[in-house]
Specification:
The complex is a heterotrimer of chains A (260), B (252) and C (417).
Chain A: H1 2-28, H2 39-48, H3 50-84, H4 86-101, H5 104-115, H6 120-143, H7 147-155, H8 160-196, H9 203-212, H10 216-244
Helix pairs in contact in A: 2-10, 3-4, 3-6, 3-8, 3-9, 3-10, 5-6, 6-8, 8-9, 8-10, 9-10
Chain B: E1 3-16, E2 19-32, E3 36-40, H1 47-55, E4 62-67, E5 70-71, E6 78-81, H2 93-103, H3 108-121, H4 137-149, E7 155-159, H5 167-184, E8 187-191, H6 195-201, E9 204-208, E10 215-220, H7 232-251
Parallel strand pairs in B: 3-8, 3-9, 6-7, 7-8
Antiparallel strand pairs in B: 1-2, 1-4, 4-5, 9-10
Helix pairs in contact in B: 2-3, 2-4, 6-7
Chain C: H1 2-12, H2 20-27, H3 33-47, H4 68-79, H5 100-113, E1 124-128, H6 138-145, H7 148-151, E2 155-159, H8 166-173, E3 178-181, H9 183-191, E4 196-203, E5 208-213, E6 228-231, H10 236-247, E7 256-259, H11 264-269, E8 275-279, H12 283-289, E9 294-298, E10 310-315, H13 323-342, H14 344-354, H15 361-370, H16 383-395, H17 405-408
Parallel strand pairs in C: 1-2, 1-3, 6-7, 6-8
Antiparallel strand pairs in C: 3-10, 4-10, 5-8, 5-9
Helix pairs in contact in C: 3-5, 6-13, 6-14, 13-14
Classes of the chains: A mainly alpha (260), B alpha/beta (252), C alpha/beta (417).
């Protein structure tokens, strides 16, 4: 317990400072609660309406999970194709980059027409937003292999598939997980935005409706829940990363501080 | 003994911005079975290019390479160890050593036994489950060498395997490579910039000229084994060889 | 992440380009260094809270959120009356939102010189619209363009909101002087302890209702039994419809409510839903132009009490201190309304001059429908109307308590009949 506190001491202190300044600022400048609620109010609402928030968080979480699944799979496959084919790379890369610029409201009508108002528009938006970092990172990861390692395998007459599965794929994991960390937080935002296209539940939906009812404290409580969701997912990816990439840190030097 | 590995009039050029860069211009030599040959020469003369051609990674522009008088690419018949660190960081030492057997699709258990046995010989026993990041430079080189030996190929091509190591480790590993070679009967081609190393290990040294390279000299080294670095004739030959290389550098 | 959500929230209420330069032309503000500078100052401060501003021409809100600095600025403005800085027409200041570097320079200069207040001698009044500019606002625009406000001695600046819930919040926070907002929203806001009060009215009758397509077989309201109805905002819309449908004997469990976000027409036309909440002067002509036959059911004909679609909201705590400006504003607005009614074509032309990209079929049709609905003399409705509406909202759980009407509306600042 004491160790946990020590580890997170810096985070806790920073948060406390931020919240204190916020609380003080809002009171000092008489900022109305329907513009910017004080943290005390937000946390109170967060606790009293926790079941509501949790329920909507669950809905958003499902959208994020599915979106991530599709986005990562699709992104990965595309990355492999782009890596192995220069033609595809030249053809697809500009399109992929352009796809990131499209604001949701522009494609929302399309999504509605194709998918209606159920789960899929949100999953699509969540997936699309994570797509790009995955593709870029995976391609970079595939490229990061020391070419001389590939030479060794070639000289052993390894097949292209063997080279891919035994060398390139594992080598691309660090980059891919890096992209995943970024992607998972983006995906949360994406799902939220997707809910604005039309939803029955979810934190994005809750925010819009609360805003319309001038319950800004609830809007911020939803944002708080969203932040926690993002942190949770990020943490999960971090844990996965540590598991899969444990070979990066020497076990006999766990305490070593990095100086460079 | 009949020549085992034959290189005849190999020419190779690269296209670079600004035209063609000829790197190898008629390189010819041969190596006997179970022989230990070393390629030396001024820096940048194309030693690595030559070795890559022998490894089957690059194609010749003209000339040929042959094993047992079967000409053509040597791909699949040699084991190549490049200059840089090519260990897979996500695999343990044991798993790294097993890589060639997996490529060849050999039965797993058999390969494991053979590999484990070699760990002791290569001075790495106890380190099977460590990752490359946990190994020292010398250990990594030994592991890479072990992997090369485990490829079950008769011909080994080693490109400056000890280049990045400190002097003491290098000395140890040179001695050790010598003993392993004698024990396992492989045919080795060693590229090195360290003339002393070449004289210590090889029966036959090929001196390349500066770029575009051809074989300037082809010496047989007669010093009896085991050779000592302090050996007078070794020291003398080292001086001569260094002079020759120096002369090549001035020419090039 | 919060910021991106807020930005997205504002961004979603995406409206057509509100040409900053047009707003300036509109209010007759001279392209003066300090005026523009002042606007830029506000923006660069607001930018810290609202990244949507960075979107250049496309983004519209200037004051999306109040912040302490604008209050300080206003206080200072009050303290240092009208130091007239000479207008420097030669000084080319790039139009708002584009040049970060220039904005920073302006802020720095202003800080050096001290807060510069409005160049013109006339007091300024910021009006936040309820939505993006549309024919509902013609009399207001006319009053600006024809100088009615100037005649009354004030300068009116029109501000477009980032989201429909902004106007009432910002007028309550004192970030804008008056806001246009539906009567229902004002009552709900007042119930939520926002200090707001209605001082006048622009459109004194309801515009809302339910819209279906004749070709889907919707001929009468009861045809919505068993159908899907698309809504944007709960709980207000569903409650209104519940009343409407109950009046023709359709119970809530006999139809399905689907949240369709903000693009309601799309959901209707793509067949995702069979009816949507709609304005008779917007979505209705919109679907007609798309070639469909609209089946529209006005809310007031089906049991929903009479409401005023657009009232003028002011800050209840400040309104008496601001009385002269409030009176001037309402007087100018009343003249604008009268002019519009008497010279409809000219009025619309004024509107188009200010917003050239609204010169299209849809807006013309909308205007024709809206024309008879502007509030004569900008007057708010009767006490009975307000009382009935308050009762309705209370009974349906949209407000927690009923208030004395004097707290929510007043005729004090209206011009004489």
């Amino acid at each position: 317990m004491a160790r946990a506190i020590r580890r997170y001491a810096a985070t806790l202190v920073t948060l406390s400072i931020v919240f204190s300044l916020w609380e003080a600022g809002v009171r000092l400048f008489h900022v109305p609660a329907y513009i910017l609620p004080p943290p005390s109010r937000i946390i109170t609402v967060f606790c009293t309406r926790f079941p509501l928030l949790l329920g909507h968080a669950g809905a958003t979480l499902i959208e994020v999970a599915l979106g991530m699944l599709l986005g990562v799979l699709g992104g990965f496959v595309l990355a492999v194709l782009i890596f192995y084919s220069h033609t595809l790379e030249r053809a697809l890369y500009p399109l992929i980059i352009a796809s990131q610029m499209i604001p949701v409201f522009a494609i929302a009508p399309l999504l509605v027409i194709w998918f209606g108002y159920g789960l899929w528009p949100k999953v699509t938006v969540a997936g699309l937003i994570v797509f790009f970092p995955i593709v870029v990172n995976t391609v970079d990861g595939l490229r990061s292999v020391n070419e001389e390692t590939i030479d060794v395998l070639r000289s052993l007459n390894a097949t292209r598939l063997q080279i891919f599965t035994r060398v390139r794929l594992p080598a691309s994991l660090p980059s891919l997980l890096s992209g995943l960390k970024v992607g998972v937080t983006l995906s949360v935002v994406g799902a939220t935005i997707g809910e604005w296209v039309g939803a029955k539940s979810g934190l994005g939906y809750l925010m819009i409706q609360s805003n319309a009812l001038l319950r800004i404290d609830l809007v911020f409580a939803a944002i708080l829940m969203l932040s926690l969701l993002g942190l949770l997912l990020f943490g999960i990816v971090r844990i996965i990363e540590r598991r899969l990439l444990h070979w990066r840190t020497p076990r006999n030097q766990k305490d070593r501080r990095r100086t460079t | 003994m009949t020549a085992f590995l034959n290189v005849r009039q190999v020419r190779k050029k690269f296209s670079v911005p600004g035209g063609d860069l000829p790197v190898l211009d008629g390189v010819s030599f041969s190596i006997d079975r179970r022989g230990f040959a070393s390629v030396v020469g001024p820096s940048g003369c194309g030693k690595t290019t030559l070795i890559k051609i022998l490894a089957g990674i690059l194609q010749v522009d003209s000339g040929e390479v042959a094993v047992h008088s079967e000409t053509g690419s040597l791909r699949g018949q040699v084991a190549y160890m490049p200059q840089s660190d090519t260990l897979l960081p996500w695999r343990t030492a044991l798993a790294n050593a097993l890589l060639p057997s997996q490529i060849d699709r050999r039965p797993h258990e058999e390969a494991r036994h053979e590999t484990r046995d070699l760990f002791a010989r290569f001075g790495l026993s106890g380190f099977e489950d460590l990752y490359p990041v946990e190994l020292s430079g010398g250990m990594k080189q030994r592991l890479a060498l072990m992997r090369t030996f485990l490829s079950q190929r008769d011909i080994l091509l080693l490109d400056e395997p000890f280049g990045a190591l400190d002097a003491l480790t290098r000395v140890h590993l040179q001695d050790w490579l010598h003993s392993v070679w004698q024990e396992m009967g492989k045919t080795i081609l060693l590229v090195t910039h360290d003339v002393e190393e070449a004289l210590l290990l090889a029966d036959h040294i090929i001196l390349l000229s500066a770029r575009p390279a051809c074989v300037r000299n082809d010496f047989t080294i007669d010093i009896t084994r085991p050779r000592k670095r302090s050996d007078a004739s070794l020291v003398q030959q080292k001086e001569e060889l260094l002079q020759l290389i120096y002369a090549e550098e001035l020419n090039g | 992440m919060r910021r991106s959500i807020i930005a997205a929230l504002c961004h979603l209420e995406w409206v057509t380009k509100e040409k900053g330069s047009n707003a300036e032309t509109l209010t007759g503000v001279q392209d003066c260094f300090t005026t523009k500078g002042k606007k830029s100052t506000k923006q660069s401060e607001d930018e810290a809270l609202d990244p949507a501003l960075k979107l250049g021409d496309i983004a519209q809100p200037t004051t999306a959120f109040d912040n302490p600095w604008s209050s300080i600025l206003r206080a200072l403005r009050g303290a240092f009356p009208l130091a007239s800085v000479p207008c420097e027409p030669g000084l080319e200041v790039s139009t708002r939102s584009k040049r970060q570097g220039t904005k920073k320079l302006i802020v720095a200069l202003l800080l050096l010189v001290g807060v510069c207040v409005s160049v013109t001698a006339q007091p300024r009044l910021q009006v936040m619209l309820d939505f993006f500019p549309n024919p509902n606002h013609v009399p207001l625009i006319v009053a600006v363009e024809q100088g009615f406000f100037a005649d009354e001695g004030i300068e009116v600046e029109i501000v477009v909101p980032g989201s429909p819930s902004d106007p009432i919040k910002l007028v309550a926070a004192g970030a804008v002087d008056v806001a246009l907002t539906p009567q229902i929203n004002l009552l709900i806001a007042h119930d939520a302890d926002l200090p707001v009060i209605a001082i006048g009215s622009l459109i004194g009758s309801p515009l809302g209702g339910l819209l279906g397509l004749k070709e889907s077989g919707i001929a009468s309201l009861s045809d919505l039994r068993g159908q899907r109805i698309g809504y944007s905002l709960a709980p207000l819309e569903p409650i209104l419809w519940r009343t409407m449908l109950a009046s023709v004997g359709v119970e809530p469990d006999e139809y399905e409510l689907i949240n369709v976000g903000f693009n309601t027409v799309l959901s209707l036309l793509s067949g995702q839903v069979d009816a949507i909440g709609a304005f008779r002067n917007f979505e209705v002509p919109q679907v007609t132009i798309e070639g469909h036959e609209a089946a529209f059911f006005p809310e007031e004909e089906y049991g929903v009490p009479q409401t005023e679609e657009i009232v003028i909201a002011a800050n209840a705590e400040r309104v008496s201190k601001d009385a002269p400006r409030m009176r001037a504003f309402l007087a100018g607005l009343a003249r604008g309304i009268a002019f519009t009614v008497e010279h409809p074509q000219e009025a619309f032309q004024s509107f188009i001059d200010a917003y050239p990209d609204l010169d299209d079929d849809l807006n013309r049709r909308a205007y024709e429908i809206t024309l008879p609905l502007y509030s004569d003399g900008a007057r708010i409705g009767t006490q009975a109307e307000w009382q009935d509406l308050q009762d309705y909202l209370f009974e349906n759980g949209l407000i927690k308590s009923r208030f004395p009407l004097a707290e929510v509306c007043t005729e004090e600042y209206l011009p004489e009949k």
